[in-house]
Specification:
- The chain has two domains: 51-115, Alpha Horseshoe (Leucine-rich Repeat Variant), CATH 1.25.10; 116-195, Leucine-rich Repeat Variant (Alpha Horseshoe).
- It is globular, with a radius of gyration of 18 Å.
- The protein has helices at 3-34, 54-66, 69-80, 90-95, 102-115, 120-126, 132-145, 153-162, 164-184, 188-191.
- It is mainly alpha-helical and 195 residues long.
- The chain starts with a helix and ends with a helix.
Length: 195
């Protein structure tokens, strides 16, 4: 089989995975609406796609803590769409930065960025995590938050010194992003329309 043939097969496989993920997200969104204790309509805002009620947030947090990898990722995505309204879920999202599944870690990263400033204190604490992966990812998220993470500057400066040359680069990049964002007067996450 030629390279073109193999690439076509890979493309079909990826297309099927995307379709499956879309169906799963659609089902999860309908569950959010159908399972809530309070059946108020979901509000659609410019920066947040859905605002489920607090009962739904508790259900999603339980899925993140106890679900399969796909359930964890889908629940994290739904929490991320809640933006800063999901502030109470931040500790669970930070815990998922250490998840053994890459897609779950990536979803947690995106959700924490979407949560914005309420995630900063937990991310500052994560800079002291025993896992290098968690520390570096926390620094990266703080950098992505820009000016919203200006309270993290002292902790990132300390981390830059303590982590050594390789890991310290993650803290240095985050500091540069935050300083640049503070200088321009905007949050990097707030200025992005697509996360």
């Amino acid at each position: 089989m030629t390279i073109i043939g193999w690439n076509f097969i890979k493309l079909l496989h990826v297309s099927r995975e995307v379709d499956l993920l879309r169906r799963q997200l659609k089902n999860l969104r309908s569950q959010i609406v159908d399972d809530g204790d309070d059946h108020r309509p979901i509000h659609h805002g410019s920066s947040e796609q859905a605002m489920p009620v607090s009962g739904d947030l508790n259900r999603l947090v339980n899925q993140v803590a106890q679900g399969t990898a796909d359930e964890r990722r889908n629940a994290i995505d739904a929490i991320g769409h809640m933006g800063s309204a999901a502030a109470s879920a931040v500790p669970v999202l930070v815990d998922r930065l250490a998840d053994h599944r890459t897609r779950v870690r990536e979803a947690a990263t995106s959700a924490l960025v979407r949560t914005g400033a309420p995630a900063v204190p937990s991310l500052i604490s994560a800079l002291d995590d025993e896992s290098r992966r968690v520390r570096r990812r926390a620094a990266s998220i703080l950098g992505d938050l820009g000016a919203a993470a200006k309270d993290a500057i002292p902790a990132l400066s300390r981390a830059k010194q303590e982590w050594g040359r390789g890991d310290g680069q993650a803290a240095t990049r985050a500091l540069m992003q935050i300083h640049k964002s503070v200088a321009t007067g905007q949050s990097a996450a707030a200025s992005s329309t697509t996360l």
